[in-house]
């Protein structure tokens, strides 16, 4: 083999090796095995949203609202606070009772620590962001550093982070408040204090006289479910609730004979 040919072959081998070495160095310098760990990439689970507040600076939020809830769902001994939700959170009433953690880091008065809120009302005009919380004054200020709640409330529209969490109402089971329009042929009830992270997907009613027959109820508005029977319903009623994640519970004979519109009846069941 001629010296020139040997030189060319040696140069080709060296050049190929050199390019391979450069690729390896470049690959190692930018490769981070942690990026392959999905749990680290999504460790916090928080998404971006906008937030405002309404009512008094230290107010608890709406009492009733589009969901019909009493404001005590956002007061001690419960850990959650009140929030109205934009369309993507309220979801035409399906979002009533859903709980979220919210926190902020975009303002100097933000603590970065999450607080828990429950959706109890609708904010139909909150559409500037795809997801928007209209928090009670108390909930908004709770995202701030100690002693800086008012400075945070003065910030106006705030960019926050949020994630869905399970609702917790220690020592409290689901309650049913019979709607004021209910009568012997038409039964409607507000459902409050459901725990867990799933929406209520369906509710069925069972009359005492037809023990094996469950009749489906329809969502009326917010967290109110109804059954328009057309004939007289015979109490006591049992109610079967199914969550969006498939869990089913039965409140046996929770609505007694002689029930009255406007009265609240407490069950002995709740979701996990």
Describe what you observe in this structure:
There is one protein chain. The chain is an alpha+beta fold and 272 residues long. 17% of the residues lie in helices and 32% in strands. The protein has 5 helices and 15 strands. The strands form 3 sheets. The protein has a 6-stranded mixed beta barrel. A 5-stranded antiparallel sheet has the order 11-12-8-7-15, with no helix packed on it. Strands 10-9-13-14 form a 4-stranded antiparallel sheet, with no helix packed on it. The longest helix has 28 residues, at 3-30. The radius of gyration is 28 Å and the shape is elongated.
Radius of gyration, whole Å: 28 Å
Helix residue percentage? 10-25%
Q: Uncertain regions: pLDDT < 50 for 5+ in a row?
A: 2-8, 17-43
Shape annotation: elongated
Strand order of the largest sheet: 1-5-2-4-3-6
For the report, how would you describe the main beta sheet?
Answer: 6 strands, mixed, barrel
| Number of alpha- plus pi-helical segments | 5
Strand content: 25-35%
Which H/E pattern describes the elements?
A: HHEEHEEEHHEEEEEEEEEE
Straight-line distance between termini: 81 Å
> What's the pLDDT, averaged over the residues?
83
How many individual β-strands? Answer: 15
Helix vs. strand class: alpha+beta
Write the layout of secondary structure elements.
Elements: H1 3-30, H2 38-41, E1 47-54, E2 81-85, H3 87-90, E3 99-103, E4 115-122, E5 132-136, H4 137-142, H5 149-153, E6 158-165, E7 175-178, E8 186-192, E9 200-207, E10 214-216, E11 218-221, E12 224-228, E13 237-243, E14 248-255, E15 264-266
Parallel strand pairs: 1-5, 2-4
Antiparallel strand pairs: 1-6, 2-5, 3-4, 3-6, 7-8, 7-15, 8-12, 9-10, 9-13, 11-12, 13-14
């Amino acid at each position: 083999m001629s010296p020139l040919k040997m030189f060319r072959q040696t140069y080709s081998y060296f050049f190929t090796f050199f390019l391979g070495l450069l690729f390896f160095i470049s690959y190692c310098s930018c490769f981070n095995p942690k990026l392959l760990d999905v749990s680290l990439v999504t460790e916090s689970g928080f998404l971006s949203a906008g937030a405002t507040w309404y009512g008094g600076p230290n107010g608890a939020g709406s009492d009733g609202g589009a969901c019909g809830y009493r404001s005590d769902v956002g007061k001690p001994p419960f850990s959650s606070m009140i929030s109205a939700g934009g369309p993507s959170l309220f979801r035409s009433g399906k979002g009533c009772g859903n709980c979220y953690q919210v926190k902020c880091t975009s303002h100097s008065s933000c603590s970065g620590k999450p607080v828990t809120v429950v959706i109890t009302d609708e904010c139909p005009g909150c559409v500037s962001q795809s997801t928007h919380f209209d928090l009670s004054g108390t909930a908004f200020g709770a995202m701030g550093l100690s002693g800086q709640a008012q400075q945070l409330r003065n910030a106006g529209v705030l960019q926050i982070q949020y994630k869905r969490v399970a609702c917790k109402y220690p020592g409290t089971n689901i309650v049913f408040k019979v709607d004021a329009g209910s009568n012997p042929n038409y039964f409607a009830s507000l459902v409050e204090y459901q725990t867990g992270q799933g929406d209520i997907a369906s509710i069925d009613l069972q009359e005492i006289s037809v023990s094996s027959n469950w009749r489906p109820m329809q969502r009326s508005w917010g967290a109110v479910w109804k059954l328009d029977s057309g004939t007289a319903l015979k109490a006591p009623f049992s109610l079967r609730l199914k969550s969006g994640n498939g869990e089913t519970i039965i409140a046996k004979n929770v609505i007694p004979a002689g029930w009255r519109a406007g009265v609240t009846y407490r069950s002995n069941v709740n979701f996990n």
